[in-house]
Amino acid sequence: MSEDKKSLNFLEQIIEEDLTNGLDQSKLRFRFPPEPNGYLHIGHTKAIGISFGLGERYNAPVNLRFDDTNPAKEEQEYVDAIKEDISWLGYKWANEVYSSDYFQILFDWAVQLIKDGKAYVDSQSSEAMAEQKGTPTQPGVDGPNRDRSVEENLDLFMRMKNGEFNEGEHILRAKIDMQHPNMLMRDPLMYRILKKAHHRTGDDWCIYPMYDWTHGESDYIEQISHSLCSLEFNPHRELYDWFKEQVYTYGKDTYPMQPKQREFARLNLSYTIMSKRKLLKLVEEGIVNGWDDPRMPTISGLRRRGFTPDSIKKFIDTVGVAKRDNIIDVALLEFCIREDLNKKAPRVMAVLEPLKVVITNYPEDKEEWFEAENNQEDEAAGFRKVPFSREIFIEKEDFKEEASSQFFRLKLGGEVRLKNAYIIKADSVVKDANGNITEVHCTYSDDTERRIKGTLHWVSIKHAVKAEVREYDRLFLDEAPDSHEDKDFMEFINPKSLKIIEAFVEPSLTESKVGEQFQFQRLGYFNVDTDSKSEALVFNKTVGLRDSWAKQKPQTNTDNNQQKQPQKSTRSAIDQIKSYGKKYDRMKPEQQDQAKAEIQALAKEVTYQDLEPLFGTSVKKTGTRVITMISLGVLLDNGLDKNEAIEDFINKALEDKSDLLVNEAKAINN
After folding, report:
1. In whole angstroms, what separates CA 629 from the centre of its chain?
2. Half-sphere exposure of 276 (CA within 13 A, CB side)
3. pTM of the model
4. Catalytic: 200?
5. Could you read off the pLDDT of 354-366 as tens digits, one per residue?
6. Which residue among 65, 186, 266, 347 is the active-site one?
7. Active-site residue identified among 46, 260, 276, 596
8. Is 35 annotated in the active site?
9. Beta-sheet pairing, 455-456 with 415-418
10. Do 537 and 467 contact (CB within 8 A), yes or no?
11. What does the CA dihedral 291, 551, 664, 350 come to, rounded to 10 degrees?
């Protein structure tokens, strides 16, 4: 038990203490309470994972409750999307409930508060009320309507409910303390007049309860044991408790347990905004093509882009539950999807920037079908057939007319291996009038047992299938686009966040279905978009094989009001990487994930000269060889060409007994 307690996060510790102090475990009940005024985004996945995760841990029910108190912004579309997203993540709720289910009892309790002298109707303008409320350092003052009689307040409130007044004429306020240090306790609003139809209750009501009044009382009615919310609600806890204590007087016989509110740090992601209002602006202004645009941080956008439930859950687990807000690098989310798809995604061949290759000694009318492994990480994935012919496409960047000895792709006079096929040698090129290479003429050798350093993917032109590929970059160029007081977040939109490519793919992909995921060998992970049809394939790029953003990451000034970043270590990047070597292979999987992300970040600052001496590390020092392989992957992705020393290091790793090392070597060879 002691070992288990060591791994508890602070929320689990609170629950364990409550159970120790007498709370019956059968009374545990949690909820996830979204407002149906937009689509869920990656930030919500943390709250979802915490509440539903606790439900699974303690075998306790979790309600899905829609806090639908504002008909001006809420729609059934959002309700349906939220339910779909949570189900897709793999969670099941005990009850689907709505705050609007409780409108009548909330109204009845409000009437009781008026009768007890704890609520009153205020008829002032919003400007007058704001002036009376004071500031964080200056107490408020009582307004002229605060001492209205109970009878007058009841009369006005009933007439508000009956629709006799216009919007803004009257509001109902709790009567607490206008001099309270916490401004939220200075007679907060409870009801306002809003003559708009509700998506569930229609025109039954023309007054609607405010969020702070509704939220806690809904928890109380549902007998939620632990009301878990993000840190922004910490100042609201005092008001949450005040309302709860008042209604407990009225409802204790029916609702004996009072909920406990506790707060955790929200999830903030770099190069991303988490405001539904701002996300809606992107949709309304046509910056993106709807809430499920693959550039959006919405769950539906991530799903359409190719992210998996497992990768998102792994990301949330890795981030953990914290008490202080921080910004998580989006590279960690991308790392999690790479790790997941590396195990699951079939390998296929596609060419995004085609260069024609003619194999002059291969018969013109001949074609062959070679066997190709679907996924070397999954023995059950099996094999498929890929066609080969005299004319093929390769990637334009995989050929150079002249290149150094460290360029291990195709060059004049040089040889490469075609994946699953023959070895070819480049003999000559054909150029257009402008000197651009349009064809490479090669000869092939069927002596495929020879050791050749470079391997290229390719597609037979005769069998190639055209496909639209949508390559996505980050939607914002700034790491924290909505943190600048003097600039609008829209100023940081990346004008090159979407690139549409006409690509060529192997014919096996004509049978692919919407949502299916693939690794385009040596290019990245892609999935079939919802726009795709059998006669017009469309693929979204989910993520590259490695982080390619680092080499183009813009430098941004940090505002004074932003959270201070930890000071950089005075040790060199290579020394910091080496420090992981002694312990990496003994870490738990979740620790390895975090360490790997940190090593990859550090590797952006090291040179080949720093890394090469580690190639000769003793076989016994598995951890050091693994961290060296991880770092090498970053250097190769950032433009380093393979040389003989690199090839030898990788090949030895592929034959090693350590699965950790073998897997990292395979990732580089993909």
Report:
1. 27
2. 14
3. 0.80
4. no
5. 999 999 999 999 9
6. 266
7. 276
8. yes
9. parallel
10. yes
11. 60
